[in-house]
Write a structure and sequence with these properties.
10-stranded mixed β-sheet, single chain
Length: 161
């Protein structure tokens, strides 16, 4: 699907309920435009569940991670981003930080995060999957649709064509 978030807003605003993310995120990964069906995670400074989810083979999915906005460690690194690419994930949104940004920039995946941080996360295996998570002015819900490009991130309850 070829789209721009600006065109989606022009076409669907007022017709369909669109949620538009606040402009908090930096772009990482080689794919600046991506979309897919949402899978959610809520975790704080712990990426054990992130790895478990990215190990799943998927089609047309985007992982949305509510990392509590932490700037104290990274939830995604090059190894996890590569795992995501190999298993069919279209993109990852991280309300937190990533590391290995130069290597991730070469991977064919869309990735948005608040910032980078060199410290790896804890490994305590805490977190929840498929809950409603809210940040950046958006309620991210499992199986809703996410569209992202360099202009922004849009979430819709239904697929936009």
């Amino acid at each position: 699907m070829t789209f721009t978030t600006a065109k989606l807003c022009d076409t669907y605003s007022g017709v369909q309920t669109l949620q538009i993310s606040e402009a908090l995120f930096q772009a990482y990964g080689a794919n600046s435009t991506f979309s897919g069906v949402i899978t959610t995670l809520k975790t704080f400074e712990d990426n054990v569940l992130v790895r478990a989810v990215l190990e799943e083979k998927v089609q047309n999915r985007v992982l949305v991670i509510d990392g509590g906005g932490s700037h104290r460690c990274a939830l995604i690194n090059n190894e996890l981003a590569t795992l995501a690419v190999n298993n069919g994930w279209q993109g990852i949104i991280v309300y937190g930080c990533i590391r290995d940004s130069e290597m991730i920039a070469k991977l064919p995946i869309g990735l948005r995060a608040l910032h980078t941080h060199p410290l790896q996360s804890h490994k305590k295996d805490h977190g929840d999957r498929d809950l409603l998570v809210s940040f950046a002015g958006v309620n991210f819900k499992k199986d809703n649709y996410l569209y992202a490009d360099m202009d922004g991130i849009i979430v819709s309850e239904t697929m936009l064509s």
